Sequence to fold (847 residues):
Amino acid sequence: MRRLRLIPDKTKIRFMRGRFAGIIVSVLLSVLSLGLMVYPGINFGIDFKGGIMIEARTPQAADFSALRQTLNGLGLGQVQLQEFGSANEVLMRIERQEGGGEAQQRAVNMVREALAAKVPGIEIRRVEAVEGSVSADLQSDATLAMGLAFLAMLVYIWFRFDWQFGVGALVTLILDVTKTFGFFVITQLQFDLAAIAAILTIMGFSINDKVVVYDRVRENLRKYKSMPLRELIDLSINETLNRTVNTSLTTLLATLPLALVASGPVQEFAIVLIFGILLATSSSIFIAAPILLFLGEKRLGRNAPAEAAKPAT
Amino acid sequence: MLYFAPWKVIVIVLVCALGIVFSAPNLLTKEQAQKLPSWVPHQQVNLGLDLRGGSYLLLEVDVDAVLKERLETLLETTRQELRKARINYSDLRSGDKQVTVRLRDPAQLPAAVDILKKQANPVGGSGALGLGTGRVDLTVTSTPDGLITMVLSEEAVRERASAAVQQSIEIVRRRVDATGVTEPSIQRQGANRILVQVPGLQDPQRLKEILGKTAKMVFRMVDTAAVDGRPGPGSEVLEADNTRDGQPSRYVVLRKVEVAGDMLTDARPSTDQNGQPVVSFTFNSVGAKRFADTTRESVGKPFAIVLDNKVLSAPVIREPILGGKGQISGNFTFQTANDLSVLLRAGALPAPLRIIEERTVGPDLGADSIRAGLIAVAVGFALVFCYMILAYGLFGLFANIALLFNLLLTLAGMSLLQATLTLPGIAGLLLTIGMSVDANVLINERIREETQLGKSPLAAMEAGFNRAFSTIIDANLTSLIKMLLLYAFGSGAVKGFAVTISLGIITSMFTATVVVRLMMSTWYRRRRPQMLVV
Fold:
């Protein structure tokens, strides 16, 4: 029986040769992402910015200019219209209303009434209205969750491996997450609570990958006492390459239908996840491993871990 | 590797069987599931509001208003008490959590302080009276030059706010129940917020209107002495709730409250002699007596029925009303008359409520989401299933069977815990499919490697499981930590995502290792292959 092997067995790709290129490209992309976060900036959704979002389905293809005119006529400030899914599904975003929850609710009512009058048979499928105080809370909760997630990962990896592994994983995570932010800016996808869930999931997936590679590095450190760290890391990456590719692929295969079938926020969530899976897979090989090499070239393996015996050389 | 104690096999098979049994009710409709006899598992996964449609309303109790009210009362009683005791003062004012007053004659200081100390209410301890603690909500201090400061204690402010929120929840519950919606959920959230979740509501407009009203109703006299609509010292101008032809749009009304709405025992919608919708009300004995007194004294004068500082109507009293019953004839429709009755029966909110977050999903969108979610899960599962067989053959099939049980156990766990499945939760389910085969990918790759090193099938399988195990634990634990954080800090639908993935991870640790191992060992004992092809 022939097996599907995307990566041939016993590859000997010398990944560490590209260690500088990998890290430099990654850092540049992350710096660029940080720049993009400043300008043009992340497209924050109503969860974090406050405001109103209304999803409606019109009986015929939506007449956007008429809808825009109707909504602008209400004097509710900035109104964004967007088609999604099909020609008769409209997503309306209205900026946060001054004057708190009451003003917000009044605006929702005005829009409902105006739409019903202008487009007979319109179906309001979803209404979300978030006030400033709520979005501020959600913001601080999200920041806290992200910060704690970083910390928990650092501590866990540190505890299970050596500090070099912990730092390597943390730096890679920071690089991964900044690039994900950059992805949000470039695609102008809505950044809301689901985005936080997506980023935490990507962090989890990314850490999984690093754990697998690091685990093999640790095992090989014990097994090949005299092998230079550079070769040893290359060997470990090659040995785990099939697993890395297969796991990324199964996760991709599972997420892909969601990106294709779903609509709205869930579709955006799936798109971000797919980006994250590709990102995390490459960062295990090109970032996390080289960092380990830089941090550990002098110490790791050749004299550091308690489990490793004295160097044979 | 090879040997499983019989009891272990039984436990493993039993857990898998329970997974099937407890996830099965989800195949039925809700009605069918409820008809099942009670000894059959009948619990189904709760669908989140984003899947079944409904409204999620986060309300905030304006606790500052409660504090403000207490300060205003304090100000008013200080004014009255000092005047009664003939103590002259100047500059009586309320500020941040305090009321200050300056006496004209510092010699009267001890007497004034004594009087004002009596204005304090007990706080803390058990029961409304705060018995036993001896603490009061007010500290009265004075300076020799005649300045008296009354400060509300932090504890008192907190206690008052907390009581207001508690009472608001009760009233919100009564109001929501009165609207006749099914399965509403009302919970306190944080210090001063109330979360109302109502499934299956197409348009929450009416519910929002009912919740947004404070419904403080009072009966006050119209100030007939006012000239040209200008209020005197004891009166104020109030707007009419609904302006009708031939009726003024604003009234000058005396500040003094004759009878308050909290003395009502009942309110019902009905019709007057002209067939117009009205609200009929009944006072309790105290209210009835006061209402009788007031109407007896003021025959021929108009009184105002004021709801949330707006005049509903201002009829002229034709004769004393002694029975404690009356009618409010505003500009009602049958709907608004009914709504007002609901509000009056449920009672007034101790403080205004604001809707600070609303998320409403129409039932059609929910049904569409469920359909899209099911398709995505089915296609995702099929893709992973095929890939695993192509990549690992028989061992891939084992992993797929384990994955199926993984999904069933997750579903069973969610049904048993009555966890809520949300749209992000479905995404989580898909992610679980992708990630939980990771454990089997790790194991299979390892077995493959060991076989290539020349190990016997048994030794290779043994090594595969043992070596991959710590990696699997590490990988799953890190994911689990993330999801717990997400659960702790996320809200609503995102929490659903965290719950689904967490259950998926936990059950996958069982299915991907233990169940697969049992399958492999059974297969090996039957076939005794000389060579492994992984």
Notes: Residues 382 and 400 of chain B are 10 Å apart (CA to CA). Chain B touches chain A through 76 residues (CB under 8 Å).
